[in-house]
Specification:
With 458 residues, this protein is an alpha+beta fold. The chain folds into five domains: 34 residues, no CATH class; 192 residues, Orthogonal Bundle (Lysozyme); 82 residues, no CATH class; 50 residues, LysM domain (Membrane-bound Lytic Murein Transglycosylase D, Chain A, Roll); 54 residues, Membrane-bound Lytic Murein Transglycosylase D, Chain A (Roll). The strands form five sheets. The protein has a three-stranded antiparallel β-sheet with strand order 1-2-3, with helices on one face. β2 and β3 form a beta hairpin. α12 packs antiparallel against α15. The radius of gyration is 29 Å and the shape is globular. The N terminus is likely disordered.
Length: 458
């Protein structure tokens, strides 16, 4: 047994200090090599991992998804474990917030649990992440794909930002893609670029059926997508080996749900509940404007669980404050002025004609040029004949696409807008078809003109 005096003498003798793991040092009894003291690890220390060592480690990962390893994957491993360690640590801090949720739905849909790493490639585990092309949320759904899987979106709410709903939608989509290709690497590639582009790459490769065989025929971004997934899966399985431990992880406030049936500002709710506004927003990331919409019907608002009883006991007072007319007017005024706002506007589609100029289109429809660019992800002013532009116009504007004008009796007409077609008009009204419009208006062809009034019902 080593005495206190002997330990003290060991501390004083420099010869007894031996290196361990780079810059970390350990004091050792030279007689029997018993470790006496080990200082805290060096946060900045970057362990080295050779190509062969990473290969051995990847081979040890248990997964139903192939983790093919090559130099391309190794370059991404080096990126996440060496070149951008701060980004990796940031994502590691978030994993305990979202991984349990991902695993719950992956188990529910009988999918490989390692698919949870896909959300890191997509969004860095940020529920309000938005790409330059308009993909949103943890799983980066485009508007059309989101609608396909039941993720609704309006001015107030974007369910692509709802962790629960978007995760279930992602599971359904991944399951569908796997059924299409019967190969997880191709399914992942299709999640990034769409199944059509993967099928095109398969055709161009001579109908080869593996990711690495069709690699050169895929879009550039997709070529990096699957290697990034493998690199992230590796990194998260070997966090300690790369000295990427995070001592202060992020956490989600324990929450409960209350049902709201009115407009409510999250800022005022936070003040009334005496909780952090940021926590309330973090619990409800799908609320794009930090407010429950005025049309809400039993909207499930998440609040800190320890505030549930207080909320239930004082709901009338709290909601009267959060939804007061003064607060609502301030909110609406700000909403109407904000860039790209669609608040209180009707959506229409305009088909560009030869000679059209983007600025003139905006002026003609009473909207800002900057808003038209934002709504359509246009950086400059270049447009082409036949292009469809999404516009949000005020209800009082002459350009409202679905304007219905009463005529004699109970009949209604549609005022044809620039870019309208009979098929588009038929989709705006329930039970209306192209043939019915032609029959009601004695039309012999599908040709219509802006300003023309079409009977759409009697």
């Amino acid at each position: 047994m080593i005495k206190i005096a002997e330990i003290f003498s060991l501390v004083l003798v420099a010869a007894t200090i031996a290196p361990l793991c780079g810059n970390t040092t350990t004091l050792v009894d030279p007689a029997d090599s018993v470790i006496l003291y080990q200082p805290a690890y060096d946060y900045e220390y970057v362990p080295d991992a050779s190509y062969d060592l990473v290969a051995d480690r990847i081979a040890c990962i248990k997964t139903d998804i192939p983790l093919t390893y090559n130099q391309r994957v190794k370059s991404f491993v080096d990126y996440f474990t060496v070149r951008d360690r701060e980004y990796t640590r940031m994502v590691i801090r978030r994993k305990d917030v979202y991984f349990p949720l991902f695993e719950k739905y992956l188990k529910k849909h009988n999918l490989p649990l390692n698919l949870k790493y896909l959300a890191i490639v997509e969004s860095g585990l940020k529920p309000v992440a938005r790409s330059r092309v308009g993909a949103v949320g943890l799983w980066q759904f485009m508007p059309s794909t989101g609608r396909m899987f039941g993720l609704n979106r309006d001015w107030y709410i974007d369910e692509r930002q709802d962790p629960e709903k978007s995760t279930e939608a992602a599971c359904k989509y991944l399951k569908q893609l796997y059924r299409m290709f019967n190969d997880w690497e191709l399914a992942l590639a299709a999640y990034n670029t769409g199944p059509g582009n993967v099928r095109k790459a398969i055709r161009r490769s001579g109908y080869k059926k593996s990711f690495w065989d069709i690699y050169r025929y895929l879009p550039r971004e997709t070529r990096s997508y699957v290697p990034q997934f493998v690199a992230i899966a590796y990194t998260f399985n070997y966090i300690d080996e790369h000295n990427l431990q995070e001592e202060i992880p992020d956490y989600m406030v324990e929450a409960d749900t209350v049902l709201i049936n009115q407009f409510a500002s999250l800022k005022v709710l936070a003040e009334q509940l005496n909780v952090c506004e940021e926590d309330l927003i973090k619990l409800n990331p799908e609320l794009r404007r930090a407010a429950v919409p005025e049309t809400a019907k039993n909207y499930p608002l998440r609040i800190p669980a320890d505030m549930t009883n207080f909320m239930m006991a004082n709901s009338s007072t709290i909601l009267d404050s959060a939804g007061s007319e003064t607060i609502k007017k301030q909110f609406v005024a700000k909403a109407q002025k904000s860039s790209g706002s669609t608040y209180g506007r009707s959506k229409m589609t305009y088909r560009v004609r030869r000679g059209d100029v983007l600025g003139k289109i905006a002026e003609r429809h009473g909207v800002r040029l900057s808003d038209v660019r934002r709504w359509n992800n246009i950086r400059g002013s270049r447009i082409y004949a036949g292009q469809r532009l999404t516009l949000y116009v005020k209800s009082s504007s002459r350009a409202v696409a679905s304007a219905q004008i009463p005529i004699s009796g109970n009949g209604k007409v549609h005022l044809v807008q620039p870019g309208d077609s009979l098929w588009e008009i038929s989709r705006k009204y329930q039970g209306l078809t192209v043939s019915k419009i032609k029959q009601l208006n004695n039309l012999r062809s599908n040709s219509i003109k802006p300003g023309q009034k079409l009977i759409i019902g009697r």
